Amino acid sequence: MKPIKICFVTREYAHELMGKTGGIGVFLKQFTEQLKQHQFEIVVFSFGAAPTRFDDDGIRIVKIKDLSHTIERIRAPFRRYKIPGYLHIKMGLEYVNRFYISMYLSLFVLKNKFDLIEFHDYGGDACYFLGSLPKIVRCHGSAVTLHEFMGYYKRTTDTVFEYKFFRRFYKHIIAVSKFSREMTEEAFHLKTPPQIIYNGVCIKKNELAKAYLDAPTEAFSIFYFGSIRERKGINIACETFNKVVLKFPDATFHVMGNNNNDHWNKVAVNLLSEVALKQTLYYGMVPNTDIENYLNRAHVVLFPSFGENFSVALLEVMALGKLVVTSNIPSFQEVIKHKENGFIAEEFADYYNWIETIFEQRINLEKISNKAVETIKNNFEIQNMIQQNINYYKSLL
Length: 397
Prior knowledge:
44% of the residues lie in helices and 17% in strands. By secondary structure, the protein is of the alpha/beta class. An eight-stranded mixed β-sheet has the order 3-4-2-1-5-6-7-8, sandwiched between helices. A six-stranded parallel β-sheet has the order 11-10-9-12-13-14, sandwiched between helices. The chain is globular, with a radius of gyration of 22 Å.
């Protein structure tokens, strides 16, 4: 049987040669690793200031040099000296870069004779792409929906090109949650609702059942796993730990994630009390291959985010059987059944209250842990999600 050739167009891919990555890059790395086992020939196409090409265990990575470095050199004096018309200059330059990326990609796809091409929704980077092959858009979270529905800072340039992108590519859209579908449909006035295909994670087989607090779990440890930024809830996590450490002096706070705009040093550290700071460890960006070793130590993992399309990180933590306390947002509600497989904090005080309940073992830790794993196994196991994607791809051919 002839392999299906698919090209993924992305800003991010989780590999050391591709620099820092977020959720999109981690998803794409895990997704393509699984997809290649089902007779797919996969190319990841990216762009940036520094080009690179390599093979990642059967996944071909092609990162071209775009015009971003040149554009930044042109923009810098306008920004530095506050020259009038800066925003118009910026928009014009961004148009040139996206047109360049789109034309390069169009020729690349034509030359390689792909069967399918998949974009993510953020940034509208290839909004001028030309090609008659089926085009899929996977909605991990656009600048438009992040701003309009989750309160993130408005990235004007990205939103402009996202609107252009969705005006051209409004069919064959995949949403990663019900919430994602509703936001995208409303934001871009789509006539056809996106197809929902949840993200998935691998389930590790536990050879022997054990008590929740057996090693490697560290009693009274609270973990935060995600970008270090206010909208992801790091401030809430810090202020919660200030309360926790007063009652549980042996409690420890463990933080992992990209230090967005140096938020950790500029804001988060200053929110921690002197006592709390002594009990806090910040690990920075942890390689994907090492994350599980850290999370296995967690007594509780906090997800106090103000907004998510869908959180693969939450699935990964629950797949390890860890107890989670999350914010009360729609995408978390699609996964968490309160007090059954995790806990939802409806207000700030609830984070502390549920941590206290867990630490004092006023609930059955093993029961909730087992239910968390069962939820992932039954609803978000990656092989099931891969098959849903394969069926969708084949329906377009």
